[in-house]
Amino acid sequence: MSEPRIKCISRSFSAHPILRRELLEMFPSAILNDGGLNYEGAELTAFLKDCDGAIVSLEPIDDALLAELPELRVIAKYGVGIDNLDTDAMSRRNVALGWSGGLNKRGVAEMTLGFMLGLCRNLFFAARQLRDADDWTKRGGFQLTGRTVGIIGVGFVGKDLIELLKPFGCRILVNDVIDQTDYYRANGLIEASKDQIYAEADIVTVHTPLDAATRGMINLDVLKKMKRSAYLINAARGPIVVQSDLKQALKDGLIAGAALDVFELEPCDDDQFMLLPNLFCTPHTGGSADESILAMGRSAIAHLAAFFKDRN
After folding, report:
1. For residue range 23-56, what is the model confidence (pLDDT) as tens digits?
2. Global pTM?
3. Catalytic residue at 106?
4. What domains appear along the chain, each with residue ranges and CATH number?
5. What's the whole-number mean pLDDT along residues 254-262?
6. Are 141 and 303 a contacting pair, CB within 8 Å?
7. Is 266 assigned a catalytic role?
8. Which residue among the candidates 284, 291, 298, 303 is catalytic per the annotation?
9. Catalytic entry in 25, 40, 71, 266
10. How many percent of the chain have pLDDT more than 90?
């Protein structure tokens, strides 16, 4: 069998010297996104044309695109979320998926813990006031230790976050669509409804996939159920939170504040939202720790190698 034609659309993968080298060692004729371009629509189709295997990250891969790529046999995911992939269409068109979950769980869990500490102890907002307004007022917030934390979504990241929280002695409320009673009992967790979490938690953090059930899950009605002293964290997927509703809730003081690593539209174009005094933002970097990037990139390469090895 001739060498498969591999293309990598991901800008960050293509710019990473170690991942570039390891991909080209495995597939010497692979084509990478050397221009660092954000391909969309017809340009995305043109770039992926005639390839046997592709490495993608957040690019939308739908049935219309797949229809234009009849030679595509496998997609390797550089990342952990697959909400950008129409997996039903891939199955119908016999396009395999190379994907492993949880590869960036520690990076996202550490960021979430950092958000919790920064929000509770008022680190983010006090730093902004000191820098921008020379405001030396000492508002030290409260300790995370002993507080009630609500975790919606107890998968790879949720479980890793629970491990990181153990030294803080938090009361942890958990909610997931999968029955994990034994795990909850073994780790001293309290299984709760979402409404109980909204009503009781000092911090609500979301770690679910983005799907039909979770899209828009955190809306104005939910935010009104939370304590006015509570904080919201989203380091999962932006559309889980209705951004306009969160903006209103923060402006009206329905909750004390929020920390977001993800947005409905990325990059976020709502400057008024991002500059709210009780909102802390990062540019979708939860899964971008050096270790996470290497793990996700090497996983994508390994999935391609395994797929084509089996077909030699």
Report:
1. 999 999 999 999 999 998 999 999 999 999 999 9
2. 0.92
3. no
4. 6-101+290-309 (3.40.50.720), 105-281 (3.40.50.720)
5. 98
6. no
7. yes
8. 284
9. 266
10. 95
